[in-house]
Amino acid sequence: DVFGFNALQIGLPRFDFLRANRMPLRCRVAPDGPVRVRADFEQLPILNNCADLVLLPHVLEFSDNPHQVLREVSRILMPDGHVIVSGFNPWSLWGARRFLGADRSEFPWRGQFIALPRLRDWMALLGIEIAGGRMGAYVPPVRSEKWLRRVSFLEAAGDRWWPFAGGVYFLHGIKRVHGTRVITPQ
Predict the structure, then answer these.
(1) How many whole angstroms separate alpha carbon 168 and alpha carbon 119?
(2) Shortest CA distance to 26 belongs to which of 51, 46, 62, 1?
(3) What is the pTM of this model?
């Protein structure tokens, strides 16, 4: 529910995360798939300061250079533009599964999980102020319906008892640009 004119979803083009957004221009960007703009995430062919909203769904974990991806996002965001990043939490049951021997050739285990404090630091260096965040997926990564029913109580208790240990995090940032005022002689 962000006001503006241009919204971009960078990555995961199979899913339209902007479908409920009210901005007139909603565009998915990825190297392949059902997109309007085909581009490398590290070199976006988008003008500076033109995007009001940028979504990064699990892009940083699977990028060879996540710093450059964030720099590009900061470049295309207009002042007071919003960015929403989702990622897998390495300090969770999902991170433990990855560390303890999940098949590294499968999604999501082949990604480089980025810790939330590290991502906050990267965003602060780029002038992106953290406006909010949320954790989710407290249930361990199991495929069996039987096991999902057995551990479903963890999802309800997660926010209350171990809010730092969600398997997935969502971080909302706003690009802040401090204006300058030229002082002219009287």
Answers:
(1) 13
(2) 51
(3) 0.84
Predicted pLDDT at 30:
92
Amino acid making up residue 47: L
Dihedral of CA 148/11/85/26: which sign? negative
List, for residues 52-108, the tens digit of each pLDDT value: 999 999 999 999 999 999 999 999 999 999 999 999 988 876 676 666 676 666 666
* H, E, C per residue of the chain: CCCCCEEEEECCCCCCCCCCCCCCEEEEEECCCCCCEECECCECCCCCCCEEEEEEECCHHHCCCHHHHHHHHHHHEEEEEEEEEEEECCCCHHHHHHHCCCCCCCCCCCCCCCCHHHHHHHHHHCCEEEEEEEEECCCCCCCCHHHHHHCCHHHHHHHHHCHHHCCEEEEEEEECCCCCCCCCCC
Per-residue tokens: 168: 């997935």
Nearest Cα neighbor of 166 from 86, 85, 117, 93 is 93
Residue 83's closest CA among 148, 36, 129? 129
Token pair 């953290």: residue? 130
